[in-house]
Specification:
Endonuclease, Chain A, 15 helices, nine-stranded mixed β-sheet, alpha/beta, about 450 residues, 18 strands, seven-stranded mixed β-sheet
Length: about 450
């Protein structure tokens, strides 16, 4: 070895060792637990290319905020009753918000109904209107939203809107108009805002509209025409959302206030407790997940569903790239006789996600999972367990939703909601085609593995 190379090798070795130590400290000391595939990917990148890997890790490596104490539920440390519902017991252990009562739930299985009810919730606001969305399109739906929000501001309503800093990059025209109308609009972690804090890759994917902490609209729809009306060039996407009223809205509003405090530094005063004017029909369990919880709450609930299911599991999702533990839980459920069905789009709006799902679908099909490919763009997110409870909300069945995004699902038990969602699933499954496995091959297996490695960051 030439003498001039010795100092370079020493510095390079120090860079590799320092980078790996940084990774270990950030992962273990700050409780940034990762799935094995993601952990291996980071270690390889830092070891082989420390001058590239370390800066990327500082920008995108954070996965948890370590704010579990802020999400704690009073009395959560008390052991649940021996006969407690498993979902309730798990929710307590994960420090999720408590189950809350709600009134009649309106299901929006078509875009026209979803938009009409969204505007009704907005128009009902008298004191406060809180909106969280991944994006706001500059189109007919966005224009309608601006008009109705402007009317609420003119009526003296305090309007606060959170738009994701990456998902909403093309939402600037609508943000400017909403701010000009008097609404307080803030970005959730803009990509160039304090990037060395490692939060750039943490996206807020929650979708909710809350009026006066009393009325709630939520689901999988962003605020753009493709989620409601479509256009002359393309039909509306198949999606789901709901609206309801009652204490459940106040519990979800606390999640919004927490996100608002993180994004802006402003801590909103909770509204005073009032006697609900809405008749309570049933109770629902909020399942927020993301960096604001120490545990991977949604993954834990889905694992519970797989291992506790007795008869059936029905899943609708646009993207199916689960981590290994969740995929195995689904496969084991199918192998022990549970009817497991997946409803996916034949081709989604993310080609990489479609390519990355191949290996997971092969393993699921081999275990007996029934896979249905819907001919249109299906964006709905739904899990129905034993026809006795369901999860509905914003989260996809992929590693980004499970481990990186801020997501919001709600577990409903209302028989009317269950019947409506089961009917919706059966209708769309009947219109789908069964998935057929492609021919195996070494190159295909290698490509599938590489895509799964990339998929965690999609």
């Amino acid at each position: 070895m030439s003498t001039w190379m010795i100092p370079w090798v020493s510095w390079h070795t120090a860079a590799v060792v320092g980078g790996l130590l940084l990774y270990v400290v950030a992962t273990q000391g700050l409780q940034q637990r990762r799935p094995p595939t993601a952990a291996i990917a980071w270690v390889i990148l830092i070891a082989l290319l420390p001058y590239v890997g370390v800066p990327i890790f500082l920008l995108f490596g954070s996965r948890k905020r370590g704010r579990a104490s802020a999400s704690a539920v009073p009395g959560v440390d008390a052991p649940p009753p021996l006969n407690a519902d498993p979902l309730v017991a798990l929710a307590r252990a994960l420090r999720l918000p408590p189950a809350a009562g709600h009134g009649a739930v309106q299901l929006h299985t078509d875009g026209a109904t979803a938009l009409r009810n969204l505007l009704e919730v907005i128009d009902s606001a008298r004191k406060s209107l809180h909106v969280c969305t991944y994006l706001i399109r500059n189109d007919a739906v966005g224009n309608t939203l601006v008009d109705h929000v402007s009317a609420r501001v003119a009526a003296g309503v305090a309007v606060r809107i959170l738009v994701d800093g990456v998902g909403g990059l093309r939402s600037w025209p609508m943000v400017r108009r909403l701010r000009a109308a008097g609404a307080q609009v803030e970005w959730f972690v803009p990509p160039l805002h304090r990037p060395l804090h490692g939060r750039t890759n943490l996206r807020n994917h929650r979708k909710l509209v809350i009026a006066d902490a009393e009325r709630l609209w939520t689901g999988g729809r962003n605020l753009g025409a493709e989620y409601f009306e479509g256009s002359s060039a393309a039909p509306a996407w198949v999606d789901l959302s709901v609206d309801t009223a009652g204490p459940l809205a106040a519990e979800i509003d606390s999640t919004f206030r927490s996100d608002w405090a993180f994004a802006t530094g402003e801590r909103l005063t909770p509204p005073p407790a009032v006697t609900p004017t809405t008749a309570i029909i049933d109770y629902a369990q909020p399942v927020p997940s993301g960096p604001d919880y120490a545990d991977d709450t949604l993954q834990a609930v889905l694992l519970l569903a797989c291992y506790r299911a007795q008869t059936s599991i029905a899943i609708a999702t646009p993207y199916f790239v689960p981590d290994e533990s969740l995929l195995q839980a689904l496969c084991l459920a199918a192998r022990r006789g549970v009817t497991v069905r997946l409803l996916l789009p034949a081709r989604s709006n993310h080609r990489l996600a479609d390519l990355a799902r191949g290996r997971s679908l092969q393993q699921a099909a081999a275990a007996g999972v029934q896979i249905h490919l819907y001919p249109g763009m299906l964006h709905a997110k739904l899990v129905i367990v034993d026809a006795s409870w369901l999860l509905l909300g914003s989260a996809n069945f992929d590693s980004r939703s499970l481990f990186l995004n801020y997501e919001l699902m709600i577990a409903f038990r209302d028989p009317g909601v269950l019947a409506g969602m089961l009917a919706w699933f059966e209708t769309h499954a009947a219109a789908a085609q069964p998935w057929t496995a492609p021919a195996p091959g070494v190159l295909r297996n290698f490509g599938d593995g590489l895509l799964l490695w990339l998929a965690f960051q999609m």
